[in-house]
Specification:
about 325 residues, mainly alpha, ABC transporter involved in vitamin B12 uptake, BtuC, two-stranded antiparallel sheet, 13 helices
Length: about 325
């Protein structure tokens, strides 16, 4: 049985995966032309919002890697987002401003934390796995609240954005946007390669029938733990980019609410598609912006939309497009 209370899904066929890659390429092309459009419309703030969306799309895609393909519902995944943001703040306070070094620091800390907590969490299954990942996430959250040197609960403002080989090119919002887009494209290609590899097929097989995969010689624990660590590392990269976008870090980045938002993004787009996670992040954050401009009670409207999506299209936007014939791979 699957570790989560969802009906088993067949592994995606090659035509379906090819179609999803085409849709992802279309999304990336639209992202690429957005800054010139924002400049033409005289709305440069749109670029900052879009950068935030791209960073969250990376985090949602990383979560989908373990949720959609490994049936691991991590309710503490925002902790790795927080590790990425605080890697920027802490290292910059010691004079380490290079983006790649900050990303390396974020990945090392996230990998270590995920290796330990994942090894413990994966001894459980189902709702117990959800709750124990939530507990570990909250432990990290309260640890950073206690760091008074970095603002504690109030957060910590960055004096400047990260540098790239000593250059401060990321101070330009458009450059930061395209760097974030570049990371999204590269990480999507990496995740797509992982899913299509032998490792990915084994991970999907464990999701569908754990006992059978174990019987034929594939240790579920080892594969799931590896996927868990990979997902954590990718999420931490999103945190580094978010810190640069906001020029501010706070424990709020790693709260359980944020983990819930990442899950909502994946559900919105379609679990187990990667492309859907990217689209889900775009839709969820745009809805947050638009509904927030309409009313202070926007979470009520957002929740209603989510309920309707789950009721009428359990596979999210991906399922909706497939049902309407707008996204249908040739058999």
């Amino acid at each position: 049985m699957s570790d989560v209370t969802t009906a088993p899904r067949a592994a995606p066929r090659a035509p379906a995966m090819a179609m999803r890659v085409k849709v992802a390429l279309i999304l990336f092309a639209l992202f690429a032309v957005l800054p010139p459009v924002a400049v033409a419309l005289g709305d440069p703030f749109m670029v900052l919002i879009a950068t935030r969306i791209l960073a969250y799309a990376i985090a949602a895609m990383a979560l989908d890697l373990i949720l959609g393909f490994g049936a691991m519902v991590s309710f503490g995944h925002a902790a790795y987002l927080g590790f990425g943001t605080y890697a920027v703040a802490i290292l910059s306070s010691y004079g380490v401003n290079d983006l790649l070094l900050q990303m390396l620091g974020a990945v090392v800390v996230s990998a270590a934390f995920a290796l330990v907590t994942g090894a413990i969490s994966l001894r459980t299954r189902g709702v117990y796995f959800i709750m124990i990942t939530l507990a570990f996430g909250q432990m990290a959250f309260f640890f950073f609240i206690s760091l008074s040197a970095y603002g504690g609960d109030d957060g910590y403002g960055l004096s400047s954005r990260s540098t790239i080989f000593g250059s401060d090119v990321l101070e330009n919002d458009m450059t930061l946007y395209y760097v974030t887009l570049g990371f999204l494209i590269a990480l999507f290609a990496a995740c797509h390669r992982i899913v299509g590899s032998r490792f990915g097929r084994v991970l999907t097989g464990i999701r569908e029938n754990r006992e059978r995969m174990e019987a034929v010689g594939f240790p579920p624990f080892r594969y799931q733990l590896t996927a868990f660590v990979i997902s954590a590392c990718i999420t931490s990269l999103a945190g580094v980019l978010l810190a640069n976008q906001a020029e501010f870090v706070s424990p709020a980045f790693m709260s359980w609410h944020r983990s819930g938002e990442l899950i909502v993004m994946v559900v919105f787009g379609g679990i187990g598609t990667l492309t859907g996670a990217i689209g889900g992040a775009v839709v969820a954050l745009l809805l947050e912006e638009w509904l927030g401009a309409l009313t202070h009670h926007w979470p009520l409207l957002f929740g209603l939309i989510l309920v309707l999506m789950v009721l009428f299209s359990p596979r999210g936007i991906t399922g909706l497009l497939e049902r309407t014939g707008l996204w249908r791979a040739r058999k």
